[in-house]
Amino acid sequence: MTTVYVNWGQSYVKLTWNPSLEPPQPENITSVHGMCFYEETLLLVNIKNRGWNFPGGHIELNETPIECVKREVLEEACVEGDCEYLGYVEVNHSENPAWSSDSPYPLIGYQAFFRMKVTAIHPFDANYESSHRKFIHPHEASTLNEDWHEVYEGILQSALY
């Protein structure tokens, strides 16, 4: 497990990467994300107001986490593939003075991460919240993502096996 503290806007949040065989209960997952690989490259998308990042998003009604990650990757990056669960990031607001019970996020929530082997690349259309996609050498991710930290590095290392 790897833990870091980050500032998300006005929020001070504790993030802990937990490579795990068992995902959290779906109702406790606040978002899902894909570490998507095509041959020896890693996929990143340029998300509006967030910069280069991994595709992902929020689970919709009656959607499983794996269905969600596949949908989000298709929407944001226009690729499809086979997924396997990697683990989760615990997002803990216990030490966050900006958090309240009125927050849209729970005091402790989870971001589930999946590894996707890309099997189909479609023309990129930028119809959703991403403006670009790129396939990079995995170790370039830390130079493109402005918020890179030890938790992201742990997720990447888990995805690379």
Features of this protein?
3 helices; Nucleoside Triphosphate Pyrophosphohydrolase; 161 residues; 17% helix; globular; nine-stranded mixed beta sheet; alpha+beta
The secondary structure category is: alpha+beta
Shape: globular
Report, as a whole number of angstroms, the end-to-end distance: 15 Å
CATH architecture: Alpha-Beta Complex
Count of spatially separate domains: 1
Helix content: 10-25%
Level-1 CATH class name: Alpha Beta
Radius of gyration: 15 Å
- Sheet with the most strands, sense and barrel status: 9 strands, mixed
Q: How many H/I helical runs?
A: 3
Mean pLDDT: 93
Number of strands: 9
What is the ordering of alpha helices and beta strands? EEEEEEHEEEHH
Would you give the CATH topology?
Nucleoside Triphosphate Pyrophosphohydrolase
* Low-pLDDT residue spans: none
- Portion of residues in beta strands equals over 45%
* CATH superfamily (homologous) name: Nucleoside Triphosphate Pyrophosphohydrolase
Commentary on this structure:
The mean pLDDT is 93. The chain has a single domain, classed as Nucleoside Triphosphate Pyrophosphohydrolase (Alpha-Beta Complex), CATH 3.90.79.10. Strands 1, 2, 3, 4, 5, 6, 7, 8 and 9 form a 9-stranded mixed β-sheet that branches. With 161 residues, it is an alpha+beta fold. It starts with a strand and ends with a helix. It has 3 helices and 9 strands.
